[in-house]
Amino acid sequence: MSGYGKYSVFTKEHKRFKADKDENRKIAGSGVTEYLHCLVKK
Fold it and tell me: How many angstroms separate the CA atoms of 27 and 12, rounded?
């Protein structure tokens, strides 16, 4: 990857939005992690 430019990754935690009752959805967690991969080309 370093041959193409500078690589970095950013993460952000979000709370999971629940629109329905818990018994209608089988969601394991209360949050989700967003990953943003960034490559700045030379």
Answer: 19
Q: What are phi and psi of 23, to 5 degrees?
A: -75, -15
- Structural domain range at position 11: 1-17+29-41
> Global pTM?
0.56
Mean pLDDT for 22-26 is 68
If 0-12 CB within 10 Å is exposed, 13-18 middle and 19+ buried, where does residue 28 land?
A: exposed
Say if 22 falls within a structural domain: no
- Looking at the domain assignment, is residue 33 inside a domain? yes
Count of the separate structural domains present in the chain: 1
Which pLDDT does position 1 carry in this prediction? 62
